[in-house]
Design a protein that fits this description.
- It is a single chain.
- By secondary structure, the chain is α+β, with helices and mostly antiparallel strands.
- The protein folds into 3 domains: 50-185, Sandwich (Jelly Rolls), CATH 2.60.120; 196-397; 484-636, Histidine kinase-like ATPase, C-terminal domain (Heat Shock Protein 90), CATH 3.30.565.10.
- It is built from 14 helices and 18 strands.
- It has helices at 2-7, 10-41, 175-213, 218-235, 247-253, 256-270, 284-296, 300-331, 334-357, 369-457, 461-481, 489-504, 529-548, 590-604; strands spanning 51-52, 54-59, 62-67, 70-71, 83-90, 99-103, 106-107, 109-114, 117-121, 137-141, 149-158, 166-167, 170-174, 510-515, 554-563, 568-576, 608-614, 617-623.
- The strands form 4 sheets. Strands 3-2-5-11-8-9 form a 6-stranded antiparallel sheet, with no helix packed on it. A 5-stranded mixed sheet has the order 14-15-16-18-17, covered by helices on one side. A 4-stranded antiparallel sheet has the order 1-13-6-10, with helices on one face.
- Strand 15 (554-563) and strand 16 form a beta hairpin.
- Helix 4 runs antiparallel to helix 6 (256-270), helix 9 packs antiparallel against helix 10 and helix 10 (369-457) packs antiparallel against helix 11 (461-481).
Amino acid sequence: MSEIAAKAPTRPRRRLIVSRLVPYLLLQVLIVIATILGLRLLQPSDPDDFAVSGFSLREDGATRPVTLPHFTSSRYSLGDPPLYTGAFTFRRDQAASGWSVFLPRFSNAVEVAVNGVVVLDSRRDANANRPDRNTPQIAMIPASLLRDGSNEIMVRLFVWGPLKGFLDTVYVGPDAALRPAFETRTLLFVTLPVVFSAWQSILAVILAIMWLMRRREPVYGVLAVAMVLGVVQAFVPPPVPPAPTSRLAAVLLASAPTESALIVMFGVLFFGWRWPRYGTLLFAPGLIVFVVGLIAGPPLPRILFLVLGIPTVGISLFLMACVTATAVVRRQDAASFTIGCAVTIVLTCWVHDMLSVFEIVTNERIFVSRLSYSAMLVAIGAGLTWRFARALNQVDSFAGQLVARVREAEERLKASFAREEERARAAALANERTRLMRDLHDGLGGQLVSIVALSERGHEGATITDAARAALKDLRLVIDSMDDIGGDLMLALGSWRERATAQLRPHDIALDWRVATPQGLPLHPELRPWHVIQIVRILDEAVTNAVKHAQARNVAVTIETLDGGQGPYGVISVTDDGRGFVPSGNGASQTARGLRNMRSRAARCGAVLDLSSDASGTRVRLQLPQVFPDSDAAGG
């Protein structure tokens, strides 16, 4: 039962794979057929009316008749190159537009002579000597060389391998009739590859920048390196024997296996898989070609490229086709379909080229792998750039949405803060109102009750007057404390000094006002009116005690700022020269109650009250806090 249960889930999975893979393979078969038809239909047509195909070939010391197109028997013939000799007919009445000789394809280089005079030497154009370029050649024939009737044409074919030499049909005729075919081939096999290579170089720079900005995505860097190698192969001048050439140039021209291995690596990384350890073996042929080419020099890189490079390119294309097919089965997205179709086209072109290399297709020597390969790289690079740009647009859109949401949240927070601030302000006003009512009740209310009681008992007016003055004093204290002093306690102390002076003057007590430090007291932005009331009442209590109980003649008030461990703090001292007192242990006594009230008020402000008394007088020292508490319950 367990085996049956294990096999059951695999059947739907196999069916899913088959249902996805079979349509994809059928699509690739259609693409292969379309590519073959395209190679047949898009092949440029040549002016067959002016074809010269019958030649006499002298090669390896023997002469025999041949028909073009023709493959030579040797792969290396620089010392004694094959010489093709033929004839064409010229009529004077056809010389109005001038005559030319047109060679569609050849390998590796040609020298053309008309009636014994050289009119074309492709070795002067380095790019024309690469078989993968399919570069055509055309040359005007001077009118002085042409004879009415039969004319001799000789084509010397220089072959330096590793492939056999090849010469296509030669065309001789009016330039106006040959030039369109030459321009068409130039567009397809010269201009178009240069355009693709230029696009590759631009995309390589873009992808390199993208990789530098996103190091965690090496797929951009791998594709950029592959494109750079392709651009180098396209623009490095090829070696033209027997002139001495750079070994590095020869090696770079044979770097296609390394480039194809990089493309496989790109495919694996692009579809989100890890590059396997054994995958580095795919780079071994390219590394061998590079090292041996640098050591030995030409023509060994070309031979190794034929033996190792071309099969490696084919294996890489096959692996890339397998990778894309697996991605199609798993992902079913447009990217995998597109890359898979592009790889199929390149693989078909590679098979076409191999048929030409092995002379299975005897009348063709057009290599289209490089052109299709460059087109595939450009398409992949453009797709990656488009995907990156789309990702940036998505990021920008997300950033815009995020900014809008942040702005909305900010507005909500501002409104919330405004409401909280309004509630805090209302709570502060309520607290101030409560404290004001309590201060009025404790101070002014008690005084008014005393006045009412004295008047009801029939006391004399002087006593009632004193009680009324005390009530008025307390009311002024509450009113003065409500003034905005900006955290500067010295302003409140200035008003208190005037009241204290007026209180001491009738008793002939002098007030000595001393400010020991220039700044007086530190500024306290957090200072509230109820703080000021508590401090002033403590000072009032000290002065009242000096008047009523100490029988003092002088009262000194000292104000200073001291430096503490955590910052400056203020100190207010009230000293009299009275007889002093002995603190009573009876908490019910008037003195004990007064001291207890003073300490309670100091604690509510966060201040520290220190009181000392002896025969020489009494000293009340009030040490202000560095920061006043926001709640009067802080002091307990």
